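Researcher: I'd like a structural prediction for the single chain below. Treat it as a standalone chain; there are no partners to consider.
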Amino acid sequence: MAIDLVHDIQKGFRTILHCMSRPGTIKSMEGLTGELSASSEGLPATFITALTLLDREASFALVGEQTNKLGEQIAAYTMSVQEKLSAADYVFITKQATKEQVINVFQEVKTGTLPNPQQSATIILEAAFSDEGELILEGPGIKTTAELSIANSKEWLEERRKANKEYPLGVDMILVDERSNVVCIPRTTVIKMCGV
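Model: Treating it as a single chain, here is the predicted structure.
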C-alpha cells in the first residue's frame, strides 16, 4: 500500500504540474489511490491533490459544509496543520460551499507580498467543468487561447480578477471534479467570458 501511495502521489504531482504549465488542459487522476480516496469525505481528486501538495511545512483551510472529518483525514495523512483561511497555504473549497463562502475565499486568502509573491495561497475548488467554450483563457502556457466551461464561475470570476490584479501577487487555482479530472488556472491566466 505504501509503495502504491508513493507512486500515486508522484503521478498526481506530475498531472498537476502538467496542467499548471498548460492552463485550461483537462487531465484525469482516475485510478490514483482508489481504495484510499474512496474512504475520504471529499472528492477522490481533492484527496489525492491534498496528499500531493501538503506536508508538515504547509498549512491548509477547508471551506464548505461538514468538513471536520475531511480536515482530520488530510491532517492525519499529510501531517499538515489546518489553519484559518487568511493564513493557509492551500484552501480547499468543497462542492457544498455556498456562493458567499466562495467569494469570501478570494477576499481573504493570502496573495503574497511584492518581496515574496510566492507566499500566496493556492485554491483547490471542487467544481464541474468541461472543455466547452463558455470561457476563453489566455496567457503563458496557452498557444493562442483555450476554452473552458466551469459551473457557477460567474460567482467568483470577478473576485479572482481582483485578487490577481497586481501581478506577481495573486492566487493559483486547481479545479477538480467528481470524475477525478483536474484543470489548473495560474494567476497569470486571463479569463474572459465568451462573446464579451
